[in-house]
Amino acid sequence: MPVPPVFETYGPPAVIAETDGSGRVTSARTVPTVIRNDAGWRQALPRGSYPIARGGDTELGFSGRYHDFDQRGVYRCVGCRTALFRSADKRASADGWPSFSRTVAASNVAVYWDTSWGLRRRAVRCARCSSHIGHVFGDGPPPSRRRYCVNSASLEFVASGTRPGKPRQARTSPTTRPYTSVSRKSRPL
Question: Which of 5, 73, 81, 90 has fewest C-beta within 10 Å?
Answer without folding.
Answer: 5
